Amino acid sequence: MRIGLLGGTFNPIHNGHLQIAEEVQKKLSLDRLLFIPSGDPPHKKREQIPSAEHRLEMTRLALFPYPHFEVCDIEVKRPGKSYSIQTVTELKRLYPSEKLFFIIGTDAFFDLPTWREAERLLTLCDFAILSRPGHPFSRLPDLPLLRSIDRNALMELDRGGESVYTFRIGPEASLHFIRIAPIAVSASEIRKRLKKREETKNLLPESVSSYIIKNKLYQEDKDF
Ligand code: ATP
Fold it and tell me: What atom in ligand 1 is closest to the CA of residue 189?
């Protein structure tokens, strides 16, 4: 089986996440896709965010119509900060004979050098790196393991030529750089709109909008 792992703060989960999941599921013929909301995200610690339980519940609601998408609470349940290296190691133990794909947008991929054991993480399973507007593939993070990547191939992807470039990074792992149709949706933009009580139709699943209203999340008088 081929299993995709899509980690995120999901603050809140939005239609962009669902769209990238559908694209990557098709492109990599994934059998299942796990959405993994972070517990206490090390990279967003100064930002006040709704509890992990709220973000987990919104994710669960959003995935309800998709039979191949599942929510995974592994990071929410783990005490302390959420590190991807721990998550992937645990999931490899849980699914020893499946092929795992760590799914990540180019914006998050560029932050990789700040992640715990980034280079080891890159060799633990395959990576699917998805284009995100404003973050071209050719601006690669500065890690020794990535030095022999073919920059021309990445520039070609940025120009809209090919749609996938695969780079073998170790005996067990490859990086798949995948150009998808641009999706101009971000959680930060949605939070701003929610604070100002602006329209979020087409940006959020209906069930998530209702949950946000019912639980009074992302209101003007709060920091999030
Ligand atoms: P924020 O605006 O708060 O940074 P976000 O919209 O990036 O939030 P996250 O939960 O941080 O949402 O994202 C989870 C993963 O989904 C990350 O790997 C991110 O790069 C990817 N992702 C989110 N939105 C898009 C998008 N529109 N296009 C491509 N990748 C995306």
Answer: 2
